[in-house]
Amino acid sequence: MNIYGYVRVSSTDQNEDRQIQAMKEKEIPTCNLYIDKQSGKDFDRPQYKRLVKRLRKGDLLYILSIDRLGRNYKEIQNQWRILTKDKEIDICVLDMPLMDTRNGKDLMGTFIADLVLQILSFVAESERTNIKKRQEQGIAAAKARGVKFGRPPRPLPENYHSVYQRWRAGKITGVAAAKECGMPLSTFRNKAAIYQNITLLKK
Prior knowledge:
Layout: E1 3-9, H1 17-25, E2 33-37, H2 46-54, E3 60-63, H3 66-69, H4 73-86, E4 90-93, H5 107-144, H6 160-168, H7 174-181, H8 185-202
Parallel strand pairs: 1-2, 1-3, 3-4
């Protein structure tokens, strides 16, 4: 039997140290620890896929909590069946002792484990939905306050005004003007349209 650990955080700026420490306490070899920094909305994750390919009958997989496995109710149920029925491995959810397939393999134990799995996976998806909703509400509120998202626009080059005037007068082509300003032709034309509107407003 080999033991494995799976760790997941939703983004690259989140800290996975607590999960890794829990895996170290179970003495999981570093080579058997798989870490994804990706949303739990589905199971299309590179490290998780590699892990599943390595798993063999009788192996043991540790995860800290069910929401680290995923946050999609149906997908969690499906993956759990793949791992425990098709792959025939055991899973231990560290923060939920009832979710240890090594225990209670009789009918009652299996029933309780399945029931707990359904509840926890439902909670995991509900939390994901709530997080998404709070993010949308936060973004909407920020936009209402005038907060702008995305990268700030690059300032126009110092020679833009003179190049623009020569281009408008037909003295140089758009390609030549874009080259002098160090930008693609499409960008130059977009900037020119905005620049022209601003110029008209100032008159």
